[in-house]
Amino acid sequence: MILSPVVNNDMRKIKFSLILSTCERTLELEHFLTCLNAQTYHFFELIVVDQNKDDRLVPILKYYINSFSIVHLRSEKGVCKGRNVGLAHAGGELVGFPDDDCWYPSGLLQRVADEFEHIPFDGLSIRAINQDGHALFGNREAVRKAGLMDAYNIWIRMMTYTLFVRRQITTVVKGFDEQLGPGAPTLYQAGDETEYALRMLEAGFQIYYNPEITVYHPDARNVQSDEAIRKAYFYACGVGKVLRMHRYPLWYKGNALFRSLGGTLLSALRLNLSKSSFHWNIFKGRWRGLTRND
Fold this sequence. Notes:
The structure is a single chain. By secondary structure, the chain is an alpha/beta fold. It folds into two domains: about 15-215, Spore Coat Polysaccharide Biosynthesis Protein SpsA, Chain A (Alpha-Beta Complex), CATH 3.90.550.10; about 225-290. Helix content is about 40%, strand content about 15%. It contains eleven helices and eight strands. Strands 3-2-1-4-7-5-8-6 form an eight-stranded mixed sheet. Helix 2 links the parallel strand 2 and strand 3 (about 70-75). Helix 9 runs parallel beside helix 11 and helix 10 (about 250-270) runs antiparallel to helix 11 (about 275-290).
């Protein structure tokens, strides 16, 4: 259902298709829409793939029908399933995949559009920061420094909501793996965005990372909570599966395991049992994903 066919007659501009798969969030989505409405660049469509069982989003989306183009779709549960439904309806030259709890600073789309006008690359990833302006992946050199992404630095240079790609890529690299990611009908509740981008790299496309452009996202790494400890296992299962699917070398797989095992032991020695349990679940999940072919 197209709620608002807003037309922009300046065909020289690059059009964005922003695909947002959402379930059980309203306040976060309202915040995203408010920030989207404040963008300085207005040539975009928002494709909302609604996985709620009710109509809670209808009044929220209708509030913006005269502000920008919204396509309201429905799909079954699964963030990747929703993104794939959205991809089938994307009409812009550039495609982005915002989370329903991220938010854009007002100049983000303008800066991304400018970047694509001047770079020869097929995709762009930007830096993820939290509400306090701190990088979500810490201060490692690979996060601070711009450059092309590869199979190794991609893990800390990209999340789905930081990625923008030329739509032609999406016709070659066929969609997200619906057996991965939040809401998937499997144990593998993460790794979906990395697996998708890895297939782009393997197909010969180039994705550039620019840390000077930023997008906001809540920092959910509260390793002390029971829910975070529980989810750590299922997220790690997804990471392990992607490492196996894309045939990473043994040394890299071993490093992924030993880092989580080291975190388990170090936290235990410091008597931080919650953090130790968190790292232990990561170790178990990565081992499960790496060793089980299902």
